[in-house]
Every structure is written in C-alpha cells, then in structure tokens.
Write a structure and sequence with these properties.
The chain has 78 residues and is α+β, with helices and mostly antiparallel strands. 18% of the residues lie in helices and 27% in strands. It has one domain.
C-alpha cells in the first residue's frame, strides 16, 4: 500500500555447540528448545528494563534465532 510505514528487524541465528575440553572436539548440541525456552523466560523477567528480543527455533534442534521483540521503524533512534 502507498504510504505504509516501513518496519524491519534483524535476525541473528545462533548455533549451539559443545566442546570436549580433553579431545578438543566440537559437536552439535541438540538443546535448542531447552535453551530457547530459558532465554524467552529471561526476556519476560527483564522486559521492564529494556527492549528485548524473541527467541524462536531455527534450523534443527541445534540452532535458535533472535529477532527484535517489536519491529524497528525508519527513525535513527531505533
């Protein structure tokens, strides 16, 4: 539509890994759901302090994605 406000947001994708300190091998960690739930709980606890983000599943159980809790606008303050 003509004249609609441009809204946008960034997506940051995080891979979840575990490193064995003895063998120095890095493996995928399939704790995405557990970590995502904990991160969203922390966002709710601290929402009164600042703008936060929403944590959503990404590809497979070894990734999560962060997006702004509300979209950005065209202003520099965003």
């Amino acid at each position: 539509m003509k004249g609609d406000e441009l809204l946008w947001g960034d997506e940051i994708e995080y891979g979840i890994f575990v490193c064995d300190p003895e063998t120095k091998k890095i493996r995928l960690s399939l704790r995405g759901k557990e970590i995502m739930d904990e991160l969203n709980d922390n966002e709710k606890l601290h929402s009164h302090r600042m703008e936060g983000c929403s944590w959503v599943p990404e590809y497979g159980a070894w990734m999560v994605e962060a997006t702004p809790s509300r979209p950005y606008t065209g202003f520099a303050t965003e």
